[in-house]
Amino acid sequence: MKFNAFGRTHAVRTAMLAGVAAVAFVAPTAVMAQDEVASQEEEPEEAELAASGNLIIVTASKREQTLQDTPIAVSVTTGETLERAQIRDLIDLQTVSPSLRVSQLQNAASTTFIIRGFGNGANNFGIEPSVGVFIDNVFRSRSAGQIADLANVSRIEVLNGPQSTLFGKNASAGVISVVTREPQFEFGGSVSATYGNYDLMVVKADVTGPLTDSIAFAVDGSYNKRDGYATIVNLDEKINDRDRYGVRGQLLFDNGGALRLRAIGDYNKIDELCCNVGNVRFGPTAPLVFGVGGAIGNEDALSDRGYLNTLPRNEIESYGGSLQGDLELGALTLTSITAYRELSNLSNQDVDFTSADIVNELRDQKVETFTQEFRLTSDFDGPLNFLLGGFYFDEAVEQNSALTTGANSRLFFDLLADAPAAARAGRAPQPGTLGFVESQLGLPTGSIFSQGPLTAEQFSLDNTSYSAFGTVDFEVTDWLTLTGGFNYTKDKKDFALAQQSFDELSNISLVDAFIVGQIAAATMTPPSQIGPAQIAAFAAGNPAVFGAIASAATNTAVNPLLGLTALQFQPPFLNLPNSVEPGRTRDSDWSYTLRASAELTDQINAYVTYATGFKASSVNLSRDSRPSASDFTPALLSNGAPSGSVILAPSSPIRDAGLIVPNLSTGSRFAGPEDATVKEIGIKASFPGLAVNLAVFDQTIEGFQSFAFTGTGFALANAGKQSTRGFELDTTITPIPALVFTFATTYLDANYDSFTGSAVGDLSGSRPAGIPEWTIATSATYTHELGSSGNNLIGRVDYYHESQTQLLDGLPDFIDRTLADPFAPARDIAKQYRREVNEVNASLTLALDMGLEVSAWVRNLTDDRNLSTIFPGVAQSQTISGYPNQPRTYGGTVRFKF
To answer: Which parts of 569-687 fold into alpha helices (H)?
Structure first.
């Protein structure tokens, strides 16, 4: 049998119809459980494959093809598998797709998708996703708009490696494509109810049918509510709950003519208390938390017990609509997909993760997205076929956020300020240091860390991009096809960032305060009367004395004020755009794909691919956004750290333009583009009872956009080069029609080939954290027919494994400036924290011929607990926190299909 990348022969269509019922229970690589009538015209070998469940149909190449003939590394999960495995959202999808990793961070909106070790960006709405998520061909730009419960899904395809020539929105790491069921012209539907532990209640319903001979409708909805499993001890409340619902309506126009239209509208709402944070390690500040009457969790991060002064509320609202039209023009098909979506995310969290009222954060984010895609596809009988498309993307992001200091903040930081002196004297820290500092610096009494606003932030981003893309297939012979593809992307981002920092201490340069004090003493002038003119005159008239004062001011062993640097969490922010920083990026790129695919035998296909991908610049929409080193050069302390001095700052564009503010340091406003390259060899074989897919690849990303939490903000930087070599093996074994085994594994040899500018120093030559070397997803499904009644008892067990891996590249608050390599401790401490995943899931379903199904299920059967990642404690030096995974859950589901 022979298929090209664009069309399908008559034999494909008939074999698919015959085999689709048998395929329904294949997982994870199974597809399309539809009620179709078998045709008598299939070819013999295709009939055998269909009957064995090995004829898999996918649309990874934007056309229906068998999985065997799709020359792309793709894994497929059916709606049937989603139901059997109780996979409710994309977060759970990784347990059946080993090349995909999904992690949820501090709130429901912060979910990161990673393929083959590449992915980032969920914590910052300015970061372009490396993994593109498409739902019914519509690009979802933010993870907050992707994680709603999966309803009425036909299948989910995970495409590994850069995808540029088939998707208008270039994706440098891969694509997750969710395909839902279309409206049907035969009345039907289903309703289900689930109850589980933690008082889980899930209700789903869908109905479809004809409105006229040419218009069909579909409506589905879901409601998911569950108590939390993590206890906030001091508040006697549960968090990590579920409280979400969604509705969706569809209309399909299909009169058998040239034009076909599908309209979809949906609304989803999440209002949850998320997410639980476990305490991994006590830092030296932990006793101070207790000293102000608070508490912090013990060092058992998996105990599901924590302390907060307020519950972490997260509200997400996502809605939108799309219209897809397909117009057949003889052997050509013109497709148009128009979509508009809105997303809002509101979170309010206690970010110090203690019961003391120290620091809280509010984020209010809104995203409006419009996309338009056109595709022209050929289906010629001759050797040449093509796809040509255009994609337009227009998005506006707004974020208003703030940090607030609480009732215990002043006392906590006062004790922290006295802690070094107390340690030297062998006594407990005492309050009074901040009051003394205020008196010496001329600040109002009680102003430092007073209760109230700490920062107020206003960020905005406008992103417009367009791309042209396409592929051409040329059948050289009956068994060899050559493919060439391209993507040209032009991307424009304009951004504005502003922040007001209200803390009195953070607005003062401690180096400059020392200099002013010394000049005031030398000239017997009140410090309040020492301004820029007086400083310049003193330096000009007394260069040697001024040099000595400057040297002392930047010497950590001489200037006593420098001990307060650790308390300057939120210094003044340099707003942009400004006269030096325009607040914009302009990117363009040509990506391409070259592929040769061959039908070696009727059962074995192979392909060789060389492809490139691209991701445009990302913007650091956070309070840790700082000028680049080319725009600003800070004065340094004796230990090499930025001094924060305005007086001593050397010439730079920002200083020379008069834009410098106290305590300004360098970092990044944005990270430049990513350029991905993959070399891949794949073999796909399908025999009666056995299907095997193997892909061996070498994938690199130049300029990988690394994004790391530093304890007070986010560092965004381009790694020089990150690479991953490895293979993906995916098998389905059907020894008898009733029994299906699947085994999928991914091996990744990942490396930072070059990354000198990370937040924890030079990572070149090291393995990136969070990427397991081995990942395994395997399952067994047995269907026992109860006599000849058509009733079945279906048992399924699946197992997911990640080999032990380091959780984080490094922890910045362990940096020690007294060492030759000050970043070494930050990297070394992180090496102590690793995880291994071993998750077992199971279900047993009684499926009656009349449409009723009753299931019992359990996820994480062995209650395997681990941390998805760790991060530095906020405002608590050398404290380490982490996000635990979900404990064992179980329940029962009753479903009726009609």
So the answer is: 653-656
Secondary structure of the chain: what % helix, strand, coil (to 5)?
15, 45, 40
Residue 442 near residue 527 (C-beta atoms within 8 A): yes
Pairing of strands 131-135, 174-180: parallel
- Supply the range of the domain harboring residue 554: 507-567
Total number of domains constituting the chain: 2
- Measured CA to CA, the distance from residue 823 to residue 737 in angstroms comes to 58
Entry pTM: 0.88
Strand locations in 755-833, DSSP E? Answer: 774-785, 792-806
Report how far residue 516's alpha carbon sits from residue 60's, in angstroms, rounded to the nearest whole number: 67
Q: Which two tokens stand for residue 546?
A: 């001024």
Structural domain ending residue among the three candidates 531, 546, 567: 567
φ/ψ (deg, to 5) at 577: -70, 155
Is 4 contained in some domain? no
pLDDT of residue 122: 60
Whether the link from the prior residue into 634 is cis, omega within 30° of 0, is: no
The confidence score (pLDDT) of residue 56 equals 53
59 inside domain: yes
Q: Do residues 511 and 499 both lie within one domain?
A: no
Tell me which amino acid residue 191 is: V
Q: Where are the alpha helices (DSSP H) in 53-171?
A: 79-84
Who's near 170: CB < 8 A, 6+ residues apart? 132, 162, 163, 164, 467, 487, 489, 589, 591, 613, 614, 615, 616
Beta-strand relationship, 880-884 and 138-140: unpaired
Determine the Cα–Cα distance for residues 628 and 671; give it in Å rounded to an integer. Answer: 10
Distances (CA, A) of 631 to 263, 347, 432, 653: 49, 34, 39, 5
End-to-end CA distance of the chain: 36
Tens of pLDDT, residues 668-696: 899 999 999 999 999 999 999 999 999 99
From 616, 611, 354, 338, select the one nearest 461 (Cα to Cα): 616
